[in-house]
Amino acid sequence: MDTIRWEDGKLKLLDQTKLPLTEEYIYAEDYQTVGEAIQKLRVRGAPAIGVSAAYGLYLGIRNARVKSKHELKEVTNKVADELSQTRPTAVNLKWSLNRMLNKLTEANIDDVESLKELLLKEAHKIWEEDIETNKAIGRNGQELIPDGAGILNHCNAGALATAGYGTSLGVIRAAREAGKKVRAYINETRPLLQGARLTTWEMLQENIESYLITDNMAAYLMKQGRVDMVIVGADRIASNGDTANKIGTYGLAILAKHHQIPFYVAAPFSTVDFSLSAGNEIPIEERDEKEVTHINENRIAPEGTKVWNPSFDVTPYELIDAIITEKAVIRAPYNYSLYSYA
């Protein structure tokens, strides 16, 4: 699935706000276009945001008229700072920008054009590594899935949310590739319906059996015995295992615990933020009230309605049975086990 690609000196991004009705691409030639695409959710998902930001940083300095490495670093820092403000919760954004900045700082090169080329190569490397990382997550995670399993998924953490293949959906893909028969239950994921619009689209593209449900059907679905496990992605994981993911994830974890259903988080190890000791330190993005009061520009709530619209919530580590990464399936106590793989 071609969601992010460097093509003819431009960053090609699949505009996810147009899916599933229209498959339309954005061709970014400057970092402002990339930043707008991230902020407006035209590109979304923590790994995809990180990859896009790396290319955006290069686009921001590609035509910089500077004469020294010092001047180039000043421009690069400015562009990185602007891009880092687009989405505060997803740690992969700053992770990839910091990786690009460190590459520039550590380079034993003074020629400005060679340094620019070095940053483009690093962005390519981040893109390539993300795909391989997702496939490794899939291989590790599919070992947890029995043949015939029913898997509940929330939001979209598939190929659309990454450079390709996906994290939580990558686990489902890998299970199917291993010859297992699986079925996915897809939460619609209000308020922006990423499950209904994006995850179901991916499942149809892959011909994986799936059923769309509204968010408030999950508890009854579990009670019916149709769900064998819940697998979700992550935007940031604190060092104790507390996990920020799309709003509604916390509620699913509570339901899974009540029904004695395993609850798994699938994410690249770069999503772990060791600078944070617990989930209450994770910054939670709050978005425009219109995302709740409107659907496709059509108002569904009365004028004057007050809205609270956090984009993410935090699931406490004690509700998470395992964190599936490219390195291993990691289990509690996370404040020890995560560090052991760092």
Task: Describe the secondary structure blueprint for this structure.
Blueprint: E1 4-7, E2 10-14, E3 25-28, H1 31-39, H2 46-61, H3 69-84, H4 91-106, H5 112-142, E4 150-153, H6 168-177, E5 183-187, H7 194-206, E6 210-213, H8 218-223, E7 229-232, E8 236-238, E9 243-246, H9 249-258, E10 263-266, E11 272-273, H10 290-293, E12 294-295, E13 298-299, E14 312-315, E15 322-324, E16 329-330, H11 334-340
Parallel strand pairs: 4-5, 4-7, 5-6, 7-10, 8-11, 10-15
Antiparallel strand pairs: 1-2, 2-3, 8-9, 9-14, 12-13, 15-16
Helix pairs in contact: 1-2, 2-3, 2-4, 2-5, 3-4, 4-5, 5-6
- CATH architectural label of the largest domain: 3-Layer(aba) Sandwich
Largest sheet: 7 strands, mixed
Number of self-contained structural domains: 2
Helix and strand content put the structural class at alpha/beta
Structure summary, number of beta strands: 16
Strand content: 15-25%
Question: What is the third-level CATH name, the topology of the largest domain?
Answer: Rossmann fold
* Total helical elements: 11
Low-confidence stretches: none
Radius of gyration: 20 Å
Main-sheet strand order equals 6-5-4-7-10-15-16
CATH homologous superfamily of the largest domain, by name?
Translation initiation factor eif-2b, domain 2
What string, H for helix and E for strand, traces the elements in order? EEEHHHHHEHEHEHEEEHEEHEEEEEH
User: Which CATH class of the largest domain?
Assistant: Alpha Beta
Q: What spatial form do the alpha-carbon principal axes imply?
A: globular
Helix content: 40-55%
